[in-house]
Amino acid sequence: MRLRIGVALAILVIAVAVLAAGPWPHGFRLSDILTGGTPVLPDGSRPVPGSTDLAGNATLGAGQHPATLRLACDPAGAGLSAVLTVPRFADFAAGFDVAGLQGGGNAAPLTSILVSNPAGVRSVRMAAQGAEARDPDKSISLTVAGARRGEDPLRGVALALAQAGTRLTWTQASPRGGDQTLTVVFSVSDSDAVALKTALGSCLAAPPL
Question: Is the pLDDT higher at 191 or at 3?
Fold first, then answer.
């Protein structure tokens, strides 16, 4: 009996140590996790979810097509995420393996996101999850999500995008060798930068000490 109690106490101590070590998503504290409370940002405010869209152009082969990039912040859940949507993709994407990006079977980092502005250049590689709409629009959506713990590659991207004049290039390789590469370009205007700061602010704030 004493041995069982000792083992249980040891497991409890290890669990508490892991919780304390973190790091937790931006804006979260250990006390919030333990008590179920809402996290508080350094300025005393409560984090709120938000999202905003950027309009851009997608290139696959010779043609250009409209595209949308939705950036979202869910501080109490998934954190930062980015969803690239290209309408009517099926109409011109015969040389691209959309099916290979769907589901959880492909974890290869086939997505390259590059942001550039007067402050510098930042590039990250991630694995995107694809989804193909069955409606008349026949769009494809590619989603990348930030890390819940540790360094979040999307945070640096989002911080750069919150500056007017930033250019983002999303390069998506096909999981099938020999296919064409999808390239999508977005430019951030002054109004875009303001909208991004507002929508993503809770995920970009520095975590409290």
Answer: 191
**HEC secondary structure over the chain:** CHHHHHHHHHHHHHHHHHHHHCCCCCCCCHHHHHHCCCCCCCCCCCCCCEEEEEEEEEEECCEEEEEEEEEEEECCCCEEEEEEEECCHHHCCCCCCCHHHECCCCCCCCEEEEEEECCEEEEEEECCEEEECCCCCCCEEEEEECCCCCCCHHHHHHHHHCCCCCEEEEEECCCCCCCCCEEEEEECCHHHHHHHHHHHHHHHCCCCC
Structure tokens given for 2: 């004493």
Backbone angles phi, psi at 126, to 5 degrees: -145, 170
Query: Distance between CA 182 and CA 58 in Å, rounded?
Result: 7
Query: Residues 23-62: pLDDT tens digits?
Result: 444 444 444 444 444 455 555 555 568 999 999 999 998 7
Question: How far apart are the C-alpha atoms of 76 and 47, rounded to whole Å?
Answer: 8
- Single pTM value for the model: 0.74
Inter-residue contact 78 to 202 (CB < 8 Å): no
**Residue that the structure tokens 């069982």 belong to:** 4
Q: 155-195 pLDDT, tens per residue?
A: 989 999 989 999 999 999 999 988 999 999 999 999 999 99
Please say if the pLDDT value at position 120 is more than 80.
yes
Ranges of each domain in the chain: 50-204
